[in-house]
Each structure stands twice: as C-alpha cells, then as structure tokens.
Design a protein that fits this description.
Distance between the termini: 87 Å
Largest sheet: 2 strands, antiparallel
Strand content: under 5%
Shape: rod-shaped
Radius of gyration: 43 Å
Strand order of the largest sheet: 1-2
Mean pLDDT: 89
Keywords: Coiled coil
Number of strands: 2
Length: 302
Amino acid sequence: MSTMREANMTEQTIDISALGPAQPITPCGAVSRLCLNPEGNVSAGSRAYQTKASIAAEATRLLEQARARDVETHEKNIPAIDHNTQMRKLLNIVMKRAGVPEELTKVDPKSRSYPPKRRRVRAEWITEVCEAFPVEDNFARASSDYERLQKAYQAYTAEAEKEKAKLEAEQAAALARRQADIEYAMLLVRYGLGADATAYDLLRAIRAKSKIVDLAVAMEEVRGDWNEGCEPVTDALGRFTIETDQDREIAADVHAAVNSFHDCQDGRVFRDTAWNYGRLYGLVPAELAADASKALHMARRW
C-alpha cells in the first residue's frame, strides 16, 4: 500500500483516496515525570522509615517500570506516526501541485524604513499540517531522560552501598570493642586485678604465672616490633631459672637466637628458632597461653 501511495504521488494524477484523518499519538512521559533525586520519588512519610539503600532500590524499580511504559507507548504509536508522516508528505505534494507556495513575502512589522522591509516567512499551511498530523511522541526525550536518571540513580545506589558498608563496619567495630571489653574484664577478674588495671598490668600478672610464658611473651613482643632491639628477650632470659634439662635447652636456643638477632636485626628469628614462642606456649596450660597472647595484643592496641 505504501509503495502504491508513493507511486501515485509521483504521477501526474494524485490519488485523493489515499488521504485520511490524523491518527492520535500518545505522548511518552512516564520517565519524565520522575524526579532526578531518587528521594523525590518516595513520599516524605515513608522516606523517614527507609534506608538510603531501600530508597535507591525503590527508585530504580520505578524508573524501569516507567521506561517499560514509555517503550510500550512508543511501539503502539509507530503505526500512527507512520500514517501521519505519510499524510504530511501527501498533503505537501497536493499543495505544491495546486501551486500553493511554502514561503510568503511579508512586510517586516519591526522595520522603520520606507518603504518597509519585507522578509520571507514559512506559509501558515505548513504549520497547520504539522499540527494536524503530529509525528512526535517525545520518545527521544523520554529515552534521554531515562539515561540521565539511570546514571543519577546508579550514583545514588553506589553512595548508598558505600554508606551501608561504612555503617556495617562501624557496627562491627563497636561490637568487637564491646566483646574485647567483656573479655578484658573477665581476664582482670581471673587474675585478681581491679577495674583500674591497665592491659600492661594484666600482661605482667599473666607473665608472673610462668617463666615459660614470660619468655614466650617477650619473644612474641620482639617478633612484632624489633625497632627497639631485643632487650625484652634478654631481660626475660635473665629471669629464666634453669631447673631442668629442658630449661637448659630452651635457654641455650633462645640465647643463640639473641646472638642471631644482633647479626641480622630481624625479630623473626624468635619465630623461626627451634624453641620459638609458639612452641613455648605449648608447654603451659592452653588457657594461660591464650590469655598471655590476648593480653599482649591488648597492650599493643591500647
């Protein structure tokens, strides 16, 4: 049918029966009615009870729904757009065949010269035909608005996720601090210390329970930070009394590690030596070893 019409338009005789009334076009405006700020799409009442993440999810859902409606509207408009476009072309041919000009010469109302200046203007019938047979449904603008809002909502979502992660990290840190405080209080009670005792007081009390623990803590301490040398290990060796053959073996090995430290200035020698702090902890009750390690970490942190 379209081919016949185009053929008729190029012939000397125009098929008037091809003319028809304009078909209505529904504007695409679902996306354009949404706010650029996702929070603007949620009522103030419900916004007070929602998180930023939930607002982002709701805004994204509304945007995709609106986009789907605009696409559906545009697809339904296509036959009407094609029809109205064809009618415009046909009417233009009819008017040209009738000798009706597309432009007119009119006096410029702003001209102050005499005779007044004249200017070329578009014939009003062209405007009237365009108004009578619309071919625009604002889908291009709706698509542009969709891309713009999509970027804005994605940025808002990313910010919401970042804030959520920060909040969760803060909550986890607060929980860890509470758990550490509870654990610290339990250790103070276990070793008969008052509430005003510091982590260093607790560590000293635990080390006093065992010469093995005393030496192991010193070695682990230097392993963690040897900027000040290995004096803590040397001091612990000075307090380490030899009572058994194993004690003698331990003392000799740690002395060798101290000498090695003086050569390499690397606290990891106390981790790698035969009688390292991990092995020493294994010689004492598990609870005492665990308490010593916890107290050392508390002293470092606090």
